TrEMBL record:
This is FAD-binding PCMH-type domain-containing protein. Belongs to the oxygen-dependent FAD-linked oxidoreductase family. Its cofactor is FAD. Keywords: Disulfide bond, FAD, Flavoprotein, Glycoprotein, Signal. It comes from Ambrosia artemisiifolia.
Length: 527
């Protein structure tokens, strides 16, 4: 696109914003950033909320404009102006977007709506709720809860710099999943700007749209401004531990046992297993790290471990008794005695090159199966697993309670994890391929008909939307059913009602039903 084209778009968009402002706003020009007019701020904003260096290269497509709203009316105007210009609008809340779909597009022209200025968190202990703007990060939410109460928390991710908007709208989970379920299971209200530029709350948007944006990906339906969430009770004393074992230290047998007992343990207990290839004494092996969060003291935890998983040999010395907010630091690989204010640091994590994928396991893997998996990890040399147990309350929540269907019947979820620091395109391809090889290898061990995936771990390898109309629906169904199973059809119906022109779209958004033009399309329209 020529500089003259971008100049015209910048001026047209600015004039549109000014015209739609409910009152004279002399600062309206400060929320619009262009690579031609204010390149320094444009680049700083674009790069500051990217957590995957794969999308910071010169070849990565860049938005023609970045809009940084400071109030709701700015968001309304941005939606209307982008729609008037027939330009794709992407919404970014935090940047922990494994495939960059909140700020990268295959379309030639797109605008980035970066919500980071809208990050207010208001906690009301009289109702035990918090209103969280979607530009906030989890650390800010956790800090504001900590300010008001030592015995309340929220069931969400372990990384403080995750953006609330993407995390909650995609489902969201953390170490309290077995006790309290997913983040979206605790959303009681929301505010959204729809495709017409209207601000709607739960009552005015209706239950179908509210259901859809609580786990179906908010960016498919509008721009979510805030979520109102219900806080959960946590004890004053929590217990955490980390125990590392190599293959020589019986790691295979321990993981084999873990898969069967972890989903059945006391729902106050969550034990994640991380499997990573390592080199110990010049010999390649796999290290299995058992990391626990228990909603209770160490005595009760040790009794539970003795009854259900004595093979891990957890001792009193392995355990740290901490507050809930200290457990957040522990799980974020930070000093658990860090000052709580560190949770307000929006840029505290390291940015690497990375890829993530996901799977669900519903049938225990045999010991021989685990042995082959360990051998494959050693063979590939870098990619690893995060294994997250299910069970507990997840067995009790219906699959259609939210768009997130992967509930009962799952033993654990796999996150495939590959990080690297070298800035080398050849290594990028090598590591991406290594992860894909491991994913293919795991086919025989994971869910089938269809193979499930977790929306927060966006994965373009499982399908992308191609075209529009019938082809858009057909291609959208491929990845849609992996993320949402039978809930996909309901999401499509909601999309068709609230955004039939598919203004809010990405490579993996929810497609609307095709318009009725041919007999073939008519059949699809009746789904």
């Amino acid at each position: 696109m020529s500089s003259n084209d971008t100049h015209i778009i910048y001026q047209t968009f600015l004039q549109c914003l000014q015209q739609l402002s409910p009152e004279p706003d002399p600062d309206i020009s400060t929320i619009i950033h262009s690579p031609d007019f204010n390149a320094t701020t444009y680049t700083t904003i674009l790069q500051s909320n990217i957590r995957n260096r794969r999308f910071t290269t010169a070849k990565t497509p860049k938005p023609i404009l970045i809009i940084t709203p400071t109030k709701e009316s700015h968001v309304q105007a941005a939606v209307i102006c982008a729609k008037n210009l027939s330009v794709q609008l992407l919404t970014r809340s935090g940047g922990h977007d494994y495939n960059g779909r909140s700020y990268v597009s295959h379309e030639k022209k797109f605008i980035l709506l970066d919500m980071f200025n809208l990050h207010n968190v208001s906690v009301d202990m009289s109702t035990k709720t918090a209103v969280v703007q979607t530009g906030a990060q989890l650390g800010e939410l956790y800090y504001r809860i900590w300010e008001k109460s030592e015995v309340h928390g929220f069931p969400a991710g372990v990384c403080p710099t995750v953006g609330v908007g993407g995390h909650v709208s995609g489902g969201g989970y953390g170490t309290m999943i077995r006790k309290y379920g997913l983040s979206v299971d605790h959303v009681v209200d929301a505010r959204i700007v729809d495709a017409e530029g209207r601000v709607l709350d739960r009552e005015s948007m209706g239950e179908d749209l509210f259901w859809a944006i609580c786990g179906g990906g908010g960016a498919s339906f509008g721009v979510v401004l805030s979520y109102t969430v219900k806080l959960v009770s946590v004890p004053k004393v929590n217990t955490v531990f980390r125990i590392d074992k190599t293959v020589a230290e019986n790691a295979v047998d321990l993981v084999y046992k873990w898969q069967s007992v972890a989903p059945k343990m006391d729902r106050d207990l969550f034990i994640r297993v991380i499997l990573m290839p390592e080199t110990v004494n010049k010999k390649k092996t796999v290290q299995a790290s058992f990391i626990a969060h228990f909603l209770g003291d160490s005595d009760r935890l040790l009794k539970e471990m003795s009854n259900t998983f004595p093979e891990l040999c957890v001792s009193k010395e392995d355990c740290l008794e901490v507050s809930w907010v200290e457990s957040v630091f522990f799980w974020a690989n930070l000093d658990y005695k860090s000052p709580a204010e560190l949770l307000l640091d929006r840029h505290s994590d390291t940015v690497n090159f990375l890829i993530r994928k996901s799977d669900y396991v519903q049938t225990p893997i045999s010991r021989l199966g685990w042995e082959s998996i360990f051998n494959k990890l050693v063979e590939l040399g870098k990619c690893g697993f995060y294994l997250n147990p299910y069970g507990g309350i997840m067995e009790e929540i219906k699959a259609d309670a939210t768009p997130c269907p992967h509930r009962a019947g799952n033993l654990f979820k796999i996150q495939y994890s590959m990080n690297w620091t070298e800035d080398d395109p050849k290594l990028d391809e090598k590591y991406l391929n290594q992860t894909r090889v491991l994913f293919e290898f795991m086919t025989k061990f994971v869910s089938k008909n269809t193979r499930g995936a977790f929306l927060n771990y966006r994965d373009l390898d499982i399908g992308v939307m191609v075209g529009s109309g019938v082809s858009g629906y057909n291609s959208g169904k491929v990845y849609g059913e992996k993320y949402f199973k039978e809930n996909f059809d309901r999401l499509v119906k909601v999309k068709t009602t609230v955004d039939p022109d598919n203004f809010f779209r990405t490579e993996q958004s929810i497609p609307p039903l095709p318009r009725v033009k041919t007999p073939e399309a008519f059949l699809f329209s009746r789904i």
